[in-house]
Amino acid sequence: MPIPCTPYEGQSGTPTIRPVPSKDGSMRALVIEDDDKTADYIIKGLAECGIVADRAENGPDGLHLATTADYDALIVDRMLPGLDGLSVVRALRATGSTVPVLILSALAHVDERVKGLRAGGDDYLTKPFAFSELHARLEALSRRPHAIVQATQHQVGDLTMDLLSRKVTRAGQTIELRPREYKLLEYLMRHAGEVVTRTMLFEGVWDFHFDPQTNVIDVHISRLRQKIDKDFDRPLIHTHRGGGYSIDVGD
Predict the structure, then answer these.
(1) Residues 111-136: what's their mean pLDDT?
(2) CATH topology for the 153-247 domain
């Protein structure tokens, strides 16, 4: 839980933060921000509130820390070297993590905010920002209940997807997938046993919010079948005419 803070005016007239003692203990946050000035500003403010903060300067390092250490909240810049912030959040959510994520971005248009939230962010704060607002948003996020992280893989029958190493195997045999094939399979496995419509696939895998009237889904499903089902007795990927697709062990 965070330590409450009250703003006051320092001698220079610049708003700052005065910590207020709390019996709830300190909050631990991860700041994934490549800009030194912004990161120092946030971490200094958090420290003054009694919040312990680690920092990662790029996407891959941030994702590694987020998946190997326990944090009460993440502050993720959208534009990061190595792996952009939205990709970091998507990869984190794919592991089953429900840690609250506050996305920072200079992209303020409503469509950009929607993209951030749909990627798995819990809140979206545009730059420039006041630290008092950032802290208030963290406090609000910390009050939301969230589950303990457990899932690091998907499994359907003898098909396994390791979400951390991005390795896919069936009956112990490694299956090599292209990035889009992996994303499609991950989406299907995340909804195992459910019929996934074309609209859901266009939005969840291609980030299209309209039907482009192409056979791109059919082509990728066919490629997945060649790799996932062809050399095995029991097919896992099923077509539902007029409905969509599903992945399950069948009857």
Answers:
(1) 91
(2) Arc Repressor Mutant, subunit A (1.10.10)
